[in-house]
Design a protein that fits this description.
CATH topology of the largest domain: Quinone Oxidoreductase, Chain A, domain 1
CATH architecture of the largest domain: Alpha-Beta Complex
Number of helices: 11
Structural class: alpha/beta
CATH superfamily of the largest domain: Medium-chain alcohol dehydrogenases, catalytic domain
Helix content: 25-40%
Radius of gyration: 20 Å
Largest sheet: 7 strands, mixed
Number of strands: 17
Order of helices and strands: EEEHEEEHEEEHHEHEHEHEHEHEHEHE
């Protein structure tokens, strides 16, 4: 089979590998759709240390069942599935608390040294599979992963009905957050980003107001759009110092900031902005296995405008060029999908 191997910063190679053999309670999958995450681009560039060569990237994926291994009984050949990519042990302290995303023994497909979905086939534990909803194509199914990241963050915010919500960052995750927030009937949704192109996308997905901090005073704009009430809940999906500070300063007394982004490991924060105004900062990391299943149901309900996120679909052979372009021209894309069954845009 073909697999796209990360061989070091800026290096991707298509290699021939042995077809994986499913072990006990695993399922052999034919990979049908894999999204390129921003973390994949950063890993490809060698910026994070979260991709260790040689390995196969890809953690947003949907697939077709080829063959169940011994003891795998829930799915049969031809079934369409979505993969929850965090392989959790189920027995550690965190798993027993339901925090499978924080499993002490977790292995994340497509991260560090664990091979992922930028390949033609993969063997995956059956417990990580969810049935792809009827009338939902593979590419939409692969979007369950970024939607789950967004869903986990919004869920931590609690009831947002009637609240003023600020989303900082209008990339793929920010736009997923926007859609899930809208389902809660909030007061006003404001989206902030440095890109006018991405802010236009946020408008198209239903943002009430948008702010580009390059063009106007940030705090004055927030005050104007909320009639001076400021923000009840901010959700930060960038992970840099300026955005993190903005997510706190915009809050009303007692407001909360949910942090999803983590691009910058260390930053300077004014603690008095938090403590003296009784504000809360909550970190959100990925999603639990249960939350992922809830997102699969949400996708099946048709309440999300998922198809609008996909900019284009490419072959494995085109991924390196796409990675370079995503780095150089990020505003041109929301989500790029890989279909391992096609070559240079021609479906089999």
């Amino acid at each position: 089979m073909k697999a796209l191997k990360y061989m070091g910063p800026g290096k991707l190679e298509i290699q021939e590998e042995q077809m994986p053999v499913p072990r006990e309670q695993e399922v052999l999958l034919r990979l049908r759709a894999c999204g390129i995450c921003g973390s994949d681009v950063h890993g490809y560039l060698g910026l994070t240390g979260r991709r260790i060569a040689p390995m196969t990237m890809g953690h947003e994926f949907a697939a077709e069942v080829v063959k169940p291994g011994a003891g795998a009984t829930k799915f049969k050949e031809g079934d369409r599935v979505i993969v929850q990519p965090i392989h959790f042990c189920g027995t550690c302290e965190n798993c027993k608390r339901g925090l499978t995303n924080m499993c002490l023994n977790k292995r994340f497909f497509g991260v560090l040294t664990v091979n992922g979905a930028m390949a033609e086939y993969a063997a995956v534990p059956e417990k990580l599979l969810y049935k792809l909803p009827d009338n939902t194509d593979y590419e939409i199914g692969a979007l369950a992963e970024p939607y789950a990241v967004a869903y986990g963050a919004v869920k931590k915010a609690g009831n947002l009905e009637g609240q003023n919500v600020l989303i900082i960052g209008a990339g793929a995750i920010g736009l997923c957050i926007l859609q899930i927030v809208k389902l809660q009937n909030p007061g006003r949704i404001i989206v902030s980003d440095l890109s006018d192109t991405r802010l236009a996308a946020a408008r198209a997905f239903g943002a009430d107001e948008v702010i580009n901090p390059k063009d106007e005073d940030y705090m004055e704009a927030v005050s104007r759009y909320t009639d001076g009430r400021m923000i009840d809940t901010s959700i930060e999906a960038v992970g840099v110092q300026a955005a993190a500070n903005q997510s706190i300063k915009c809050l009303k007394i007692g407001g909360q900031a949910i942090w999803v982004g983590m691009s910058q490991k260390e930053m300077e924060i004014n603690m008095q902005d938090i403590v003296c105004s009784a504000r809360r900062v909550i970190g959100s990391f990925n999603y639990t296995h249960e939350e992922f299943g809830e997102v699969v149901d949400l996708i099946g309900s048709g309440r999300l405008n998922a198809a609008k996120l996909i900019t284009k679909t490419i072959s494995l052979e085109e991924v390196k060029d796409a990675m370079d372009d995503l780095h150089m021209n990020p505003d041109d894309y929301i989500k790029v999908m890989i279909d391992p069954s096609i070559k240079r845009g021609k479906r089999k």
